[in-house]
């Protein structure tokens, strides 16, 4: 029934609806385990970091324990910022298919909603993906720093300690080099060029993109493309070398 492998769980579902609030973040907020465990609890069982009510969050860590049950899989995920976080993912086994779970010792990225169950904090997972490139761990921590720096207007190190006030902020409260949608200036330039070709069925090719952005390093263009695809700002069309934007121009 259960298969202990490094693979994304299939057939997962959750009956817990997302927190709806005008103060809730609609995007997925990168977090550390310690931030989720220390988040304040607000009305209706929701959690908040500062003034931001949490909706969907993502954490990256190593699986310490895994307990497959009849209708769910429970994990203990540790990112070394605090005690391990309890993670629960519902599974549908009615079709008799083998459900793949992440084995202990595997690094995973978990996306879900924080909940309080019988006095214990859980992350109700909507998606659990095994990490194959360990650079993604560092990338996640940088995303955590950037996201919370934008929310608070303060500068943090990778351990989320305040190191200084942000002197490079613009009047809108966004750090220089970071756009209002959370993209870096380079990512914004790449997305802008992709959007310019939104009227074409095939979008823009990678070759044309490099030509239009000849002033940028190829490595920066590639990393920006990977980020935009992963975060849902862009998608592939006829092959892996043609891109279109999911956002209106």
Automatic annotation (TrEMBL):
Keywords: DNA replication, DNA-binding, Nucleus. Signal peptide: none annotated. It holds the Pfam family RPA_C. Residues 159-241 form the Replication protein A C-terminal domain. One of its GO terms (cellular component) is site of double-strand break. Belongs to the replication factor A protein 2 family. This is Putative replication protein A 32 kDa subunit-like isoform 4.
């Amino acid at each position: 029934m259960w298969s202990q492998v490094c693979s994304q769980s299939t057939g997962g579902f959750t009956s817990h609806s997302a927190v709806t609030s005008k103060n809730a973040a609609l995007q997925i907020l990168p977090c550390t385990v310690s931030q989720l465990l220390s988040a304040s609890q607000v009305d209706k069982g929701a959690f908040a970091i500062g003034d931001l009510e949490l909706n969907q969050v993502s954490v990256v860590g190593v699986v310490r324990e895994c307990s497959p049950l009849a209708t769910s899989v429970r994990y203990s995920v540790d990112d070394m910022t605090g005690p391990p976080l309890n993670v629960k993912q519902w599974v549908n086994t009615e079709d008799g298919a083998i459900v793949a779970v992440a084995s202990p010792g595997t690094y995973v990225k978990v996306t879900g909603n924080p909940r309080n169950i019988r006095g214990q904090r859980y992350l109700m997972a909507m998606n659990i993906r095994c990490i194959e490139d360990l650079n993604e761990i560092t990338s996640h921590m940088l995303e955590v720093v950037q996201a919370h720096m934008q929310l608070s207007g303060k500068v943090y190190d990778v351990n989320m300690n305040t190191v200084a006030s942000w002197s490079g902020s613009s009047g809108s409260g966004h750090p220089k080099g970071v756009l209002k949608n959370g993209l870096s200036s380079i990512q914004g330039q790449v997305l802008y060029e992709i959007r310019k070709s939104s009227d074409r069925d095939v979008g823009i090719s990678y070759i044309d993109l490099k030509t239009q952005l000849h002033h940028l390093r190829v490595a920066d263009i590639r990393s920006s493309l990977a980020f935009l695809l992963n975060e849902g700002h862009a998608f592939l069309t006829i092959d892996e070398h043609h891109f279109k934007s999911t956002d209106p121009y």
